[in-house]
Amino acid sequence: MKILTIMSNGFEELEAVGTIALLRRSGLEVDVYSLHDHEATGRFDITVSKTHNLAELDHTGYDCLFIPGGPHWKELEENEQVRNVIKYFIDNDKYIAAICAAPTILGHLGYLKGKYYTCYTSMNGDFGGTYMDTYTAIDGKIITGRSAAAVIDFGFLIINTLQGPEQEQKIKEEIYYDK
Questions:
Q1: Burial category of 8 from C-beta neighbours within 10 Å (exposed 0-12, middle 13-18, buried 19 and up)
Q2: Contact, 142 vs 114, CB < 8 A?
Q3: Is 7 in contact with 34 (CB distance < 8 Å)?
Q4: In a domain, 179, yes or no
Q5: Domain count of the fold of the chain
Q6: Mean pLDDT computed over every residue of the chain
Q7: What is the mean pLDDT of residues 2-30?
Q8: In angstroms, rounded to a whole number, what is the distance separating the alpha carbons of residues 95 and 19?
Q9: pLDDT digits over 83-122, tens only?
Q10: Are 105 and 111 within 8 A, CB to CB?
């Protein structure tokens, strides 16, 4: 399965890199696109390079969209191409995984109406769904995570959803995850 990651300057490093590392460890193909040419710098000045330029994106071949949180959520939400990509994934019944501040984008666009979800607690608005006071939540094809502290559980929920519980358990054993 192919996963599309979109980020911009100000992404939350732990959420982006931790999730991507778990997904790639599990054998999932993860491509990273940036709004800023071929790199993005996180909120703590860690730069991810070798990203693809969002202007060159053909999003139709991906199975899941992953949006990490962080202050970049505002720029992502204001970007018409990002909004169109999100709409494509919703309209085509594809998976969207968003963590921390990123589910707020989905909420503002109306995609959390009638859904169970979680997000960074102080960013929870009246999105028309049911906020869950948990590290992760899944409702249909929308997977959400609460915060940087939820990264491992969030990554494992994506793995379980896309590849099944056996693969999730295999990766948990590889990293000695015992919860």
A1: buried
A2: no
A3: yes
A4: no
A5: 1
A6: 96
A7: 98
A8: 15
A9: 999 999 999 999 999 999 999 999 999 999 999 999 999 9
A10: no
Residues 6 or more apart whose CB falls under 8 angstroms from that of 74 comprise: none
Instruction: Supply the pLDDT for residue 31.
Output: 97
CATH of the domain at 151: 3.40.50.880
Nearest to 107 by CA among 134, 140, 73: 73
Taking the C-alpha atoms of residue 53 and residue 39, their distance in angstroms, rounded to an integer, is 8
In angstroms, the CA 103 to CA 108 distance is 9
Structural domain boundaries, residue 132: 2-174
Evaluate whether residue 170 is within a structural domain. yes
pLDDT, position 178: 83
- Give the pLDDT confidence of 106-164 residue by residue, as tens digits: 999 999 999 999 999 999 988 999 999 999 999 999 999 999 999 999 999 999 999 99
What pLDDT is recorded for position 49?
Answer: 92
Residue 149 lies in a domain: yes
pLDDT of residue 114: 97
The residues facing 32 across adjacent strands are: 5
Q: What angle in degrees, to the nearest 10, is found between the helix axes of 13-25 and 151-163?
A: 30
The pLDDT, as a whole number, for residue 43 is 96
Residue 145 forms part of a structural domain: yes
